[in-house]
Amino acid sequence: MSDILKILRISFSLKNTYRVNSIIYGLKQIPIVKKLIPESIYGVGGLKIFVNIISVLWEFISAFAGKLMYLLFMVLIISSQYNTKNQPLVYMNILVFLTFIGAILNTYLFDPSKDKYYAIVLLRINAKYYALVNYAYELFKTIVGFMVFGCIIGWLAGVPMYINILSPFFVVGCKLTVSGFNLWRNEKHDYYYNENKGEKLKVILVIVFLAAAYGLPLFGCEMPLALTVTIMILAILTGIFSLKVITGFTKYRLVYARILKEADEQLEKVSNAELSSNRELIELDSRDDYEQSVSKKEKKGFEYLNSIFIRRHRKILWKPAKLASVICLVLVLASIILMFIFDNLKVQMAELPLKYLSMFLFWMYFINRGQGFTKALFMNCDHSLLTYSFYRTPHAILELFKIRLREIIKINLLPAFILGTGLSVVLILSGVDTNPFNYLIVFITFPAESIFFSVHYLIIYYLLQPYNAGTEVKSGMYKIITGLTYMICYVMMQVEVPVFVFGISTISFSVLYCIIACILVYKIAPRTFKIRT
User: Fold this and answer.
1) pTM above 0.85, yes or no
2) Where along the chain do its domains lie?
């Protein structure tokens, strides 16, 4: 027992130290806060105790909040959207197949995490004890989290309580089964499973299970409760049987050495592949042809530099935008055709822009090319030019910012205009709403959203400049802002806002955001727009 507690203490200490240093590093990346935090802060006892408390709270939250969000958003809310009276069956159908996916993608045992590297490779802790103790701890958190929120959310869905109580053990049983099976494959076939490594069979299984989770209820083919309970009991039994394989396995050090090495090689390979693919997509023109085309427009200075960049990166920047535009156009035309074929669809189609215009903000989040544009800027332009002081003067930064903003707005406006025009036409043809002002609001809202995302990603690029010389994102604040952007857009999908209120708010906010962005870039960017170390 003392050995188990010692390993848990070391494990938690390693995770905690890594997490604490990450939190402090993240705070030091915030433009205003970093001035108040000296380098010696890593050795300050009082603050480290405070951050340790935050880290412990995070450990507690991760055990529960993640399970709550998963069951609430991925299972309960989606199951409630199906037009059926059998929500408990839909709920359990989704939960069962998503559990299969989780068992494949999140085993805990085969995750090549940093704490395993520090403990097993650097500190030379017994790999088997370390693996089993931490694995048991993660499974315990899974049982507790799913027991608490699984019973509550399952009860809200109308699932019998005995199934809700069985569900946590089913989840753990699936994870044990997958882990035991992969350890058996290692013994018999010298196979090394890495949950972060993409494999064809893994991808196929995930797609099949995902389609079964959300697709079967669409056709009224969700599993009956008797079959669900049978599958759960079988998974629990196979999990118990797998415990013998997991506890009897002796080559954990070899397995971790292999998958940790693969993880490092995979990161390096992905980074090099991304650089190579970006370079391959750059289109080079003959100097005479290009200079002749530019001279006709009399471009010079930063306009000339931007013109070269846009022309050579057409595939990276414009190809995804054109593809998104084609998809949007097909969807709009299909909606119009369906309206003419089925009259009863006119009201439902009209409700999309009238009641659920905020839902399309999430679509615009995925369509916009802001992050891809800024990454291409750094990798193939700013990466080199930021070493020159003239490139970081306030006047130069503001001038180039406005030029680049104009370009990314043009790229993002193409699919935005198609969606705005298409939904306005759908609203007109439906005949449900005869207020021409609503048509105008719907038409303008999408370009306004595209302008917001264009400004948003360009300004956080200039104010935070998240990339280091190896094009890795090193800004904790950048990750927080992009994560919050995603969360806000996702939450807006669930909110019903009248077309007038949402449209006017979006348009006004986009205009104000552009003005503030230019001021902040001029005032702050000369100090922040630099290559990270």
Assistant:
1) no
2) 63-270, 313-528
